[in-house]
Structures are given as structure tokens and as C-alpha cells.
Predict the structure.
Amino acid sequence: MKKVIILPIIFILALSIQAQPSSYKVIKVNGSIQYVRTGSKMALGDEFAETENLTFGSPSARAAVINPGKGRFILTPESSGKLTGARSNFLPARSNISTRGGALNSRNDVQNQFSEAVAIIYKASWHINPYQFPMDENRFFFLQYQYNGEQINKKLLSKESKLVFSREEILKVDDQSIEKLDKPDAKLYYYSADGPQYISEFDLIFPEMELLKSEAGIILGEFSSMDYSRKVNELSGYLFEFYGKPDKEDVMFFLEKDFGLKK
């Protein structure tokens, strides 16, 4: 008799557990997103159910969210015509990004690499074909950007055939460290005996370090059981979607320096 009573209860509890909506943790919010139920704004570290009704401040508002069982997603409005109380889209996020294969051999390769936003955490480097773009004291790449209303020409570091973007060196004017550029727009030039050659224009992004540590901490916390490569890929994909193209070696150095994670 007891078995007859207990089994239905277990069955009902199992159905109840299955019916519970998945919950997500917020990694980052771009724009304004509000919870309809409370009226409060979505913020880093929030947890909410996937059935939560949301109000998006604009069609471009979005958030990076994560569920340890399902993965990372980009939260967007269901449509640009209905931003309040609509069902939200959970778009699968990138868990990996295509990275450069070998050297940047041609002018076109360099232009393609520096055509979209590029994210620098600490230091990023790219192999450059030394026959196409030799680099030494008299031949080098340099950046042009705006700081404090002035145009700054910043010679970039190189090591053998590697072009190096150092956060510390780029964010320095007249030997004084600066917090950020006036705007992310930057132009890349190559200088040689023929004079400066324009290469491309792109957004140069330096993530705010304490904020990035908090965002990365959420990703790593939710994916704590994942292997090292998956963590690197997930963080690289997140940076690509919300900041700019990262250098994986830069991501790996960040994980080791700030989280003690090694390959």
C-alpha cells in the first residue's frame, strides 16, 4: 500500500522538477534591459528565469548570459517591433573563434586582421611576413589615435617578425600612462624609407580590467568543471562578441595572471 502512495508522489515531484524553467546568470548588459515584474534594471551577476518578462530599451539592447548546463547565450528582443513583455531570444553564443593561421603574409592579410574591433587585455602579437613588412628601428608599424583632443602617433613594438600591441605602451603619452583613448577609432600605418603607408582603420578596445575580471569570473565560475581549452575558447568567444577580436595567447596570459589558470 505504501508503494502505491509513494510512487505517484515521486512521479509528481519529478514532473515538477522538469517543469522548472532554466535560470541564467548575467555576464554583461549592453544598453538597457528591465525586469517587467520588478521594474529594476538587469545588471552583471543577476540570476533570472528564462520565462522572465523583460523590457528592452532599444532593438540593439542585448545581454550576455550563461547557464552551466546549456552554455552561454546572447539575450536579445524577439523582434524590433515589440520590446516590452515580449518573449526573449536566447541566441547561442560563440564558444570558439577562428584564429589566424600562420603569419599575416600580405597587405590584404594585415588589413583583414585590423578591419574590425580588436581587443587588447595585456599584450597581443601577430606574426608578420618579414619580406613583405620588415620591422626594425627604421621600418615599423605605428598607430594614430586621439587623446585629449590631440592626434597621437604611437610606434608599435616588434620582436623579430612579431608585431606587438602592448596595452601598457599604447596607453602612454609623453611617458605618462593614460586611462583610455578619446574614442576607440585607430588607424594603422607602416613606415619605411618610402614614408608612411596607410593600412587600415579599426576600433582599438581596451576592456576595463576590473569589469572584465568580474565578467570572466562569472564565466569561469559557471564552467568550473570544463577543461582548460573550453574555458579559453568560451572567454575568447565572449570577448569577440562584446569587445573585439582577441589574441588567444593574450587570453591565456590573462587567465594565468588573474585567475591562476594554466594549460
Notes: The two ends are 57 Å apart (CA to CA). The first helix runs from residue 2 to 19. The chain is about 25% helix and 35% strand. Residues 50 and 109 are 42 Å apart (CA to CA).
